[in-house]
Design a protein that fits this description.
The chain is an alpha/beta fold. The chain is about 35% helix and about 25% strand. Strand 11 and strand 12 form a beta hairpin. The longest helix is centred in the last third of the chain and has 21 residues. The protein is elongated.
Length: about 325
């Protein structure tokens, strides 16, 4: 997949461009339906499947309180590539770009720069200044300017509307099985392993790999999770605690993962952590011995869950998630 990180990098129009546009935060099953439609249409006409997205997410610029993102831009890029898309155009979003009218977006970007022939959008898509570029507008523009517009209906899984908003709600509630249903994969956090207080192994008896979490991140419900850790292309089971370590009266939010059957030094290395199931809320223990006893119970429960889901875990650790 060819990646363009600015419109200026596109030096010529794409051949028979079949295009979809959106923020695609999380790349959930609804997004994947759009990509599949683009890929199929591009194949039938010998054209180019193109995804147009934005970084940062427009609401990070337009809304004072921002937005909690399900996926990083890098993760979104990986998943779009896996969908079989030929070209990804990542437009830098700014207040200046937000002021572009819907007509100018169609004329200058979709037609002049990209060369759209077929456009595929979701049922609720809208763009441009004051979001006037809705479905009716696009269909009218398509008739006038010679490109088709295909609208993909809302998609439901287990009676839940598949949307980024719903995924954020499920993750915040710790409903990881439901989040997986809408995403089509496990919800994942990722980052470089940080040097922590080094109490896990020495004092508690369960060494951990620590990832810092920012308040701007989408924070899952605080507590303990069964997880799957991907490090150096290999997969391991584990238990993850997201919280502030109340037993030690700390305040900093951190994700601490005890990785099963693992004793490597991975400080500074990137890891990916798939959240499988919420086990319990974070709590303050009277002493380290009680904390250690509870973690041992958590480990037993986690290993039972991992055995139950071993077939699915093998799939989630395929090349798609190890890029």
């Amino acid at each position: 997949m060819k990646i363009y990180r600015d419109l200026s990098q596109i030096t010529e129009q794409f051949t028979n461009a079949c295009v979809t546009i959106g923020n695609f935060d999380g790349v959930h099953l609804g997004h994947q339906l759009l990509f599949a439609e683009v890929v199929q249409r591009a194949y039938r006409c010998g054209g180019t499947g193109v995804v147009v997205t934005f970084d940062p997410h427009p609401l990070q610029i337009l809304r004072p309180d921002g937005i909690k993102l399900i996926s990083t831009c890098d993760q979104k890029t990986e998943l779009i590539e896996f969908a079989g898309i030929d070209a990804l155009v990542i437009i830098p979003f700014s207040m200046k770009f937000a002021a572009i009218s819907a007509v100018n977006f169609v004329d200058d970007i979709l037609l002049k720069t990209i060369g759209v022939k077929q456009l595929v959008v979701g049922h609720d898509y809208a763009f441009g200044k004051r979001r006037v570029g809705n479905i009716d507008f696009l269909q009218e523009q398509g008739k006038k300017k010679g490109f088709s517009v295909t609208v993909i209906d809302a998609h439901y899984e287990q009676e839940m509307l598949v949307s980024s908003t719903k995924v954020r709600e499920l993750v915040a509630d710790g409903r990881m099985a439901d989040a997986r249903t809408l995403l089509g994969r496990y919800y994942q956090i990722r980052g470089e392993v940080q040097l922590g207080q080094q109490r896990g192994g020495k004092e508690v008896g369960f060494p951990t790999a620590n990832l810092n979490m920012d308040e701007d991140d989408l924070i899952p419900k605080m507590g303990v999770y069964v997880c799957q850790v991907i490090c150096d292309g290999k997969c391991y089971g584990g238990v993850l605690n997201i919280g502030t370590n109340p037993t030690f009266d700390e305040k900093r939010l951190v994700a601490e993962t005890h990785i099963f059957d693992f004793d490597q030094d991975i400080y500074g290395k990137p890891i990916k952590v798939n959240l499988l199931r919420f086990l319990r809320s974070e709590q303050k223990f009277p002493n380290i011995a009680e904390l250690s006893k509870q973690i041992a119970k958590d480990v037993v429960c986690a290993k039972e869950v991992l055995i139950e889901q071993q077939n699915e875990l093998a799939l989630s650790c395929a090349e798609r998630f190890n890029q």
